[in-house]
Structure formats: C-alpha cells, structure tokens
Amino acid sequence: MTNDIIVAGLVLAGIEIWLGDHRLIALSAEVQPSRVLTVMGPSGSGKSTLLAFIGGFLDPVFKARGDVTIEGVNLTDLAPESRRAGILFQDPLLFPHMSVGANVAFAVPATISRRSERVRIAAHALAEVELDDFAARDPATLSGGQKARVALARVLVSQPRLLLLDEPFSKLDMALRQQMRSLVFTKAQDAGLPVILVTHDEADAQSAGGEIYRMDAVSGQEP
Ligand SMILES: Nc1ncnc2c1ncn2[C@@H]1O[C@H](COP(=O)(O)OP(=O)(O)OP(=O)(O)O)[C@@H](O)[C@H]1O
Q1: Residue with CA at minimum distance from ligand 1 atom 16
Q2: How high is the ipTM of this complex?
Q3: pTM across the whole model
C-alpha cells in the first residue's frame, strides 16, 4: 500500500509496534466508512497500544513504524488534536467540575466560537443520545449508562474522522451494554465513520458486525 493511492476509509499500512526487542503488533488493515474492525486478544497483547498509535498518543517507550491514513490523508505525523480521532474509553472521563452540557460543548471544535452555537450543538447532541433535559445536570448525579451517553455525545460534536473504542461497554450491565452498542454503532454509521473497537467480549464483536483481528494470532510473528 502506497500513500499516493487514495483509499476510502481508514488504512493501517505496515504498522509495527515494538517494546524493546519484542514486536507487540504487526498489522495492515483497511476499515471502510461506517464499518467496524474489532481487535481482540489477551490482556497485555497491545490492543490499547494500537489505539494510542492511531490516536497519536503512543508512549515514547514504544518504537513504531507504518502509516495511518484516512481518506488519503496521512495522520502519522500529525499531533493528536489534528488527527480528529474520537475516543471512548471504559471510563466516560467526564469533567466533574462542569455541567453535562458544558462537558459536551467543550469538545465542539474551536472554529465554532460563538457560545450560543456551541451550547446549541451540545444540546442537539444530548438529544441524539436521548438525554434531552440533562444539559444543566452535574455529571456526579448521572447513572453509568447516562455518563456513557454523555461521553458519546461529546465525541460526536468533536467532528471526528474516525472512532477508537477501548472497551467502552465493559462497565455496563447486559441490558445497557446492548443499548449502548446499538447507539454507538448507529451513530458511527450515520456519520460514516470507520471504527476500531477493542474488546474482550465476543458479543461486542458479533454486534459490531465487521472483521475481527485477533492480536494473539500474529503478535511476535512475521506479517
Ligand atoms: N508506558 C508503558 N511503558 C512500558 N510498558 C508499557 C507501557 N504501556 C503499556 N505497556 C506494556 O505494553 C504491553 C501492551 O499493553 P496494552 O495496554 O496495549 O495491552 P492491552 O492488550 O490493551 O491489555 P488489556 O486488555 O489488559 O487492556 C503490555 O505488556 C504492557 O505492560
């Protein structure tokens, strides 16, 4: 894969990530818009490390090579904030000192500077995740499922090019997990985003519906 061929979606070309002399990851993959690549593998196999590389926040203790491109734009040398990767973690990581609405408005790109417009976009995103009347609420008063939906609204307003999901459903109970999976994948599809999902859960992988990359199957081997 060369970088002058423009391929729709997310392309991971010749990614290798090393920790000392141990190669954790050797991967080439393409993820089309609205599709999900699920990454599975045992604890410590490098799943979060792969997301950190794609997002641009890989710890310098790792050595990495390869290119991450999206719609033909090479992200590899861009700062994390310029990559526009929307990330959801296991923990929703809401700012405790801000209202729910302010948490979401915070992620609206700085190019939209009018406060009233930022507030309107945040309110619209909260409605999209069925939290219409929650803008004034203190995050501490929300249930786990509600916090997860605020985190999703915050990612959606940030105008991401792709979504990176690091076990975002694993702290939710079965019923909520199913709802949240469906909400996240529907929103990603609506926005035409390629998604990388890291999970330990086969049901998450099945519900994502895309290709499954098993980290333990290639780690340490030649690609
Ligand atoms: N900053 C760091 N310095 C040194 N080693 C690290 C660092 N971060 C991660 N590692 C090591 O890199 C390897 C991969 O870690 P990573 O967190 O990517 O695994 P994972 O597959 O996401 O695991 P889990 O499923 O438990 O979250 C592990 O052996 C881990 O100990």
Answers
A1: 46
A2: 0.96
A3: 0.91
